Every structure is written in C-alpha cells, then in structure tokens.
Amino acid sequence: MRLINVRLVTKNDTLIGKTDAKRDFPLLEQAVSSGPTAETLLWDWSDIRIATASYFAGTCIPLFKRTLSGELDKFFVLSGINENSAEELKLVLDAEGLVMLVADRVKGTQIESVRLFGHLDQSYLETFKEALRKRTVSAAALYRSSASNKHSKIGKTAWINRLSNLSRFRLLRRTKVGREFVYEVPF
C-alpha cells in the first residue's frame, strides 16, 4: 500500500472549485499513475482544511472512474478526511452513483477500520461486510456458509455476481486460485 499525502502533492490545504481541480489534476494523476499495478493507494486528506464537491468532481472522481473502466489498475482508500470535506465528497459520489472506501482508523499504512461513502445496494453491502469480516472469500465459501446456516436461499451464481460486482466497483480485489476466484479487501 502506498500513501499519497494530498497536502504534499497539491501544496495547498484549501482545495476549492474547478479552477483548483484543473490546476491539481495533473499532479494527482502523476502521483496515482506511478507505482505498480493493482496497488492500493491510501489518500491522506488529514492536512486538508476543506475540499469542495467541485474539486472532488474534477480530481478524484475522474481518477476513480479510470479504475472502474479498467484503464487504471489501482484501489483507492481515502483517510483523514474531515467532516465538511466528507459531506462534499458524499454529494459527488451520490450524484455519480459511485462508492468509495474511507478509512476511519489508520496506523501508518495499516488500515484498522473502513466505511463506505456513496450508495451501495443492501445485498452488496452485506456481502462486502462478510468479505471485510473474513478478509478473503469465494462464492463457493459464501454459498456453503449461507446454505449451512439456512439464513438465505441465495444460490452460488448470485454470490458470484455479488462478488464480481464488488470487484468491479473496486471494493474487493479478485484473484484466481485454481478453478475459482477469491476476493479480498484491498488493504
């Protein structure tokens, strides 16, 4: 996991509007693009006093959309974002229909807890929570677990679809192990 200190990259602690976003986008793009593929980037916002919705819409969101399209093979986790900036980010994520990981507690580059910003369907949210709890899951394991508990009548294909979509949303990392895919949280 690599840390990106937004304050150090932008040289500002107040990130307001499209003009600032246009100025800083190349700097953030360069910071994100360097490094190995499939890495997790921990975006540290702790030294930022305010970042507005239009700033997020002009910087983070276009970069995040590149991960969703497959153009950029990275995983994003935001940390240290203050309450005002968090509200601004949530506005953009809701408008765009996106979901991002936000770390609540971080020690160095070790993430101790996360939450999701943006809207995620309840079935995906439950599946993500299970992956977060177990750290590594497969559709077969979730199917066996739900069938043995008799809490759910979800078939294996539904578990495959849920995990595949969470991977496509860049909330889980997918790895092929033998004949099946295994999913894990990207940190």
* Structural class by helix and strand composition: alpha/beta
CATH class of the largest domain: Alpha Beta
What is the fold named in CATH at topology level of the largest domain?
Answer: Transcription Regulator spoIIAA
Q: In what order do the strands lie side by side in the largest sheet?
A: 1-3-5-6-7
CATH architectural category of the largest domain: 2-Layer Sandwich
Strand content: 25-35%
What can you tell me about this protein's structure?
This protein has 187 residues and is an alpha/beta fold. It folds into two domains: 1-119, Transcription Regulator spoIIAA, CATH 3.30.750; 120-187, Orthogonal Bundle (Arc Repressor Mutant, subunit A), CATH 1.10.10.10. It has helices at 6-10, 17-33, 53-58, 60-69, 83-96, 122-134, 139-149, 156-168; strands at residues 2-5, 14-15, 39-44, 50-51, 74-79, 99-107, 110-118, 136-138, 173-177, 180-184. Strands 1-3-5-6-7 form a five-stranded mixed sheet. It has a three-stranded antiparallel sheet with strand order 8-10-9. Strands 2-4 form a two-stranded parallel ribbon. The model has no long low-confidence stretch (mean pLDDT 94).
Tag the structure with descriptive keywords:
alpha/beta; Transcription Regulator spoIIAA; Arc Repressor Mutant, subunit A; 187 residues; three-stranded antiparallel beta sheet; five-stranded mixed beta sheet; 2 domains; 27% strand
Topology overview:
Blueprint lengths: L1 E4 H5 L3 E2 L1 H17 L5 E6 L5 E2 L1 H6 L1 H10 L4 E6 L3 H14 L2 E9 L2 E9 L3 H13 L1 E3 H11 L6 H13 L4 E5 L2 E5 L3
Parallel strand pairs: 1-3, 2-4, 3-5, 5-6
Antiparallel strand pairs: 6-7, 8-10, 9-10
